[in-house]
Amino acid sequence: MTTGPRLAVVGAGRWGARYLSTLAGLSSVGQLLACDIDPAARARVQAVAPGTTCVSSLDELSTLGVEAAIIATPSSTHASLALRCIEMGLHILVEKPLATEPQAATEVIAAAARSSRLLLPGHITLHDPGVQRLINMVKAGDIGQPLHFHAERSSVGGLHRTESTLWALGPHDLATFFSIVPEAERSKEIRAVHVETCSVQTAVDIAFKNGSRATFRWSRTEQAIVRKVRVIGTTGELVLDEPSGTLHLRGAHQPTIQPPRQAPLELQCLHFLECLQNGVKPRPSPGLALAVVGLLHRIQATIYQKRETEPMLQTEAAP
User: Fold this and answer.
1) Rounded to an integer, what distance in angstroms lies between the CA atom of residue 6 and that of residue 249?
2) What are the respective helix, strand and coil percentages of the chain, to the nearest 5?
């Protein structure tokens, strides 16, 4: 007999379906439930997770003895649904980003703390073994003091989606960046933010007062998926290709590293279950998620400012 938690996935769309499929294969889940207001989404649940109890509202879900919820709905709804789930007494995993406004993210974090509820921000990239190895090597000083962080990420088939490139792709790389350079979470360390953007591409350059830089390139127009992170330090350079997991260390006598491959989504779900059952501290922290939302919001403000000064420039739609 399974003794794991009764766990609900709120939102059974594209990402919700992936969560349901993954969780259905984990023996540490007691009972799996799904919640979605869309009848078509609810109808698809049985195809990805047979036997899953499916309801249409949080009110109905609240009567079923659920202990924890994964929120996999559109970004603009994350904060409000997170607050509602906390009010219901649920521990929560909230898909990235935690919110689309810093104040809303702060409110979710505060509500979880007041209620002693677990809050795990769903930054799936940080559960990728290659990304974790990159972060650990930088922190261990394998390339000296990091000077320049560069990330490039593209998706395929995203032109029809309503969420902006910034808010869809940006959280992944900003989470990695803040894991490597936590002191940059303080906005006062930022000297300048420069953004070039259109409806499907965003390029961001950030200069810090200590002389270091961070550059990001996010796109939905490429023919293939690109996920690369490069960190240049005073004594070497690390280059990670996320899809293959290949990590190159340049500037030192060390071969290419191939971290073990395991699906980041499964690792994130297992971590959430471990936090629920064994009291493990959630990774990443809510504070890191707040830093990501704060910088995304600042970049978005820069985009709006450019639109006002350059009215002919096609800019990002609001998230």
Assistant:
1) 43
2) 40, 25, 35
> What does DSSP say about strands 201-208 and 246-250: parallel, antiparallel, or unpaired?
unpaired
Domains annotated on the chain, with CATH: 6-122 (3.40.50.720), 126-266+294-309 (3.30.360.10)
Bridge partners, 203 (sequence order)? 196, 217
DSSP helix/strand/coil, 118: coil
DSSP class of residue 199 equals S
Helices (H), ranges, 25-148: 39-48, 58-61, 78-87, 102-114, 129-139
**Strand locations in 155-275, DSSP E?**
190-197, 201-208, 213-219, 226-233, 237-241, 246-250
Residue 231 CA: distances (Å) to CA of 181, 239, 283: 11, 7, 22
In angstroms and rounded to an integer, the radius of gyration of the C-alpha atoms of the chain is 20
The answer to whether residues 166 and 202 touch, using CB atoms and an 8 Å cutoff, is yes
What phi, psi does 262 have (nearest 5°)?
A: -150, 145
From residue 104, how far is each of 110, 170, 235 by CA, in Å?
10, 18, 40
Give the pLDDT of residue 214.
96
Residue 139 CA from chain centroid, whole number:
21
Average pLDDT value for residue range 291-299: 95
Query: Hey, what are 147's tokens?
Result: 């000077």
d(CA 203, CA 216): 6
Q: Which of 110, 120, 66 is nearest to 89 (CA)?
A: 66
Tens-place pLDDT, residues 22-76: 999 999 999 999 999 999 999 999 999 999 999 999 999 999 999 999 999 999 9
pLDDT at position 314: 43
